[in-house]
Amino acid sequence: MSFTVRAITLDLDDTLWPFAPIGARVDQVLHEWLLEHSPATAAMYPVAAMRELRERAFRDNLHLRHDMSALRRLTLHEALEGSGAPLDLLEPAYEVFYAARNQVQCYPDALDALARIAARVPVAALSNGNADLERIGLMHHFAFQLGAREHGAAKPEAGIFHAACARLGCGHGEVLHVGDHAEMDVAGAARAGLRSCWINRTGARWEREDLRPDLQFDTLAALADWLDAHLPPTPPSDPTRA
């Protein structure tokens, strides 16, 4: 399949790096911090209980589903208040969480592939999560980062895709959205009029019959190969302008 790709929007969690190790580390780091700074909270909310509290906060506050940071603060507020801890611990606890959340380990192919892709077309990060590419050290590969919190709505709503296209200066059909999630990424992008690429690292079967991704690969490196094969050659740089 061949079509015009003038820009790419790229999901982050479970596309550029796996999220599960981050989530597990965040839970443990936060618990260890609470053991030191608020033992009563750590005792009332060990790792499993804190996870249950967070999941309940997410279920009970669907109006905040686009704002992972607000939901995390809400969880910490309830845990501190419920255990009788001072609420001035909330922001220090959040910062401990957020520092750990931004310690990522990319998939083995991802960094080289990202550099190759970004050398071909502008790439914008488009995520429902709250990773910070500046903190992570990858922002130089991206034209910009647009998060659900900043936009005010999350994927798969069309508005966040359209906002990214507008900032990229491209028509919807000229942008390829790349991500791992069948609904949030592939279906959301398709309904918004973008091209879609499913990064299927697990070998899962595509289950939907109403639509299919325009492209499907098991690595970002394979997408970089496709771009090399289907896009015009990148013009060489002019050494006189270096």
UniProtKB/TrEMBL annotation:
Pfam families in UniProt: Hydrolase
Top-level taxon: Bacteria
Keywords on record: Hydrolase
Any GO molecular function: hydrolase activity
InterPro entries registered for this protein in UniProt: HAD-like_sf, HAD-SF_hydro_IA, HAD_sf, S-2-haloacid_dehalogenase
NCBIfam families: HAD-SF-IA-v1 (TIGR01549)
The protein's name in its UniProt record: HAD family hydrolase
Taxonomic lineage from the root: Bacteria, Pseudomonadati, Pseudomonadota, Gammaproteobacteria, Lysobacterales
